[in-house]
Amino acid sequence: VLQEEYDTYDDPFVQLPLAWNRRRIIEIVAARDLIFALAECGLCGAFNRTTNKRICHLNISPDEVIRSLFYNKNNDSLITVSVYESDRYSSLKCRTTPIEYIRRGQLHDGFPLFETESLKYPGFVEFDDVNGKVLTFSAHDSTYKVFDLKNYNFLYSICDKDIQEIKISPGIMLVIYQKASNHVPLKILSIEDGTTLKTFTQLLHRNRKVDFIEQFNEKLLVKQDKENLQIIDKLWSD
């Protein structure tokens, strides 16, 4: 049963850019008494649950396209990840705004995050609520950096051009290196300080594409094209 309905475009006195015409909603984030709805075009609206009214749009400039949202419960703020037309939409920019500022419509009182990081594609930023960490990747120098989600302090970095992917799990990170002919090197790191907990290799079927490698608790899941899913039950064994 429909209980409430919100309209991102409900203010007839606000003239939005033509590019911000109606698009489907791709992300909804709830934070205390507010609801944030992000449209496919990059327009994001903030709504009050009590009054069922839109408070404001989170786009602070006409050329800003918001790509994703993250509610940081550690400091009661909303993080927006955006790209800008003035930058040819090439770099991710992060901004944090306290929820109280959003209630007041003081969007310009938020502040940018990770300004020293080059987040040009295929660079990225990932927010890990479970471990309270932020992972960034700067593609130009193949550097991963880990920050504290509570205060955004830099913790440590990992620089290795042979890393293909990093998967985050509770307490640890699974580092997946470039696939060799019949195996893939793997490493498990502590999420807290980046120290190596285990280094090993996983055998693979030769000439088969790897669909995914995932970690689930103490198990490693490996799937290759046209092969059965492998579940390795001795991830921590020697």
Describe this entry's structure for a reader.
- The protein is mainly beta and 238 residues long.
- The chain has 3 domains: 1-113, Thrombin, subunit H, CATH 2.40.10; 116-159, no CATH class; 162-238, Thrombin, subunit H.
- Helix content is 3%, strand content 49%.
- The chain is built from 1 helix and 19 strands.
- The strands form 5 sheets. It has a 4-stranded antiparallel sheet. The protein has a 4-stranded antiparallel sheet with strand order 5-6-7-8. A 4-stranded antiparallel sheet has the order 9-10-11-12, with no helix packed on it.
- Strand 13 and strand 14 (172-177) form a beta hairpin.
- The longest helix is centred in the middle third of the chain and has 6 residues, at 99-104.
- The radius of gyration is 21 Å and the shape is elongated.
- The mean pLDDT is 88.
Blueprint (SSEs and pairs):
Layout: E1 25-31, E2 34-39, E3 44-48, E4 53-57, E5 64-72, E6 77-84, E7 93-98, H1 99-104, E8 111-113, E9 124-128, E10 133-138, E11 143-148, E12 154-159, E13 163-169, E14 172-177, E15 183-190, E16 196-203, E17 210-216, E18 219-224, E19 230-232
CATH arch. level architecture of the largest domain: Beta Barrel
Order of helices and strands: EEEEEEEHEEEEEEEEEEEE
- Write down the CATH topology of the largest domain: Thrombin, subunit H
Query: Overall 3D geometry?
Result: elongated
Radius of gyration: 21 Å
Distance between the termini: 54 Å
Which ranges are low-confidence, i.e. pLDDT below 50, for 5 or more consecutive residues?
none
Biggest sheet, spatial arrangement of strands = 1-2-3-4
Number of strands: 19
Q: Overall mean pLDDT score?
A: 88
How does the helix and strand content classify structurally? Answer: mainly beta
For the largest beta-sheet, the strand count, sense and barrel status come to: 4 strands, antiparallel
The portion of residues forming beta strands comes to: over 45%
Alpha plus pi helix count: 1
Helix content: under 10%
Oligomeric state of shown chains: single chain
Pfam families: DUF7899
